[in-house]
Amino acid sequence: MGGTALGSKYLYEEVDPKIAWSDPQNILYLGSGALGGARIAGTGCFSIVTKGALNNGAASTQANGFFGAYLKFSGFDGILIQGASPNWKYLYVHDGVAELRDAQHLVGQNTWEIEDTIKKELGYSESGMSVFSIGPAGENLVKFAGVFGDRGHSASHNGVGACWGAKKIKAVAVSRSAGKVEVADTQKVAAISKEISEDFKEHIVYQWGTSRGFPGTLKIGALPVKNYTTNLFPEWEKFDGPYVR
Asked: What one GO molecular function would you report for this record (predicted)?
């Protein structure tokens, strides 16, 4: 069971469907996948599940980076936040411990600045900690605000950044810690991981990136253009992977 499935279970069981996304009883679930932290390609992302600000419905969004793996190394599969703080806080997770710290000094900072500030404050190197946070948009409850971390990775669907802002959660910082994710058969996992990695190298995304999906997406009318106001884009060829390269 991965982070999204477990988060959805908590959302269904803990949150009354009648409450608004900004209600303190709404939850924020941040969870790694079942294989998070294992030496398998593609398992490093984490999920955020909540009742989203944009449509006041169930929201699930994922981000890459080191957060999911570091969460496991710190001794946690996930984090469940319910309630709201009267003052700005950030959550510091390390070595089996999770503690709320004052974040008033982070208010107004953008997400890159927050990473720098927290790592310096706690004495971590660039790679020794994963920090995901909200900027001024999330602080001001902009309904399409996202959550950003590890120098540009984002979890942005359905206004989850505003949900962090409603709870006065400015950031979640997870240290690399010294824990490990143990597997029953290390050799078998390594062989499967290698097979997945080699197979992926034959995939069109590996060769050209996600931009190679333009032709197919355009053909079925699913290309979002001008903030989903149209699906027509005559200049699409200039954004296709082979053309860009």
From this structure: oxidoreductase activity, acting on the aldehyde or oxo group of donors, iron-sulfur protein as acceptor
DSSP string, the chain: --HHHHHHHHHHHHS-TTS-TTSTTSEEEEEE-TTTTSS-TT---EEEEEE-TTTSSEEEEEE-SSHHHHHHHTT-SEEEEES--SS-EEEEEETTEEEEEE-GGGTT--HHHHHHHHHHHHT--TTSEEEEE--HHHHTT-TT--EEETTTEEE-GGGHHHHHHHTTEEEEEEE--S-----S-HHHHHHHHHHHHHHHTTSHHHHH-GGGGHHHHHHTT---BTTTTB---TTGGGGSHHHH-
User: Which segment of 66-75, 149-158, 215-224 scores lowest on mean pLDDT?
Assistant: 215-224
Residue spans per domain, the chain: 3-175, 203-244
How confident is the model at residue 151, as a pLDDT?
A: 93
Global pTM value: 0.87
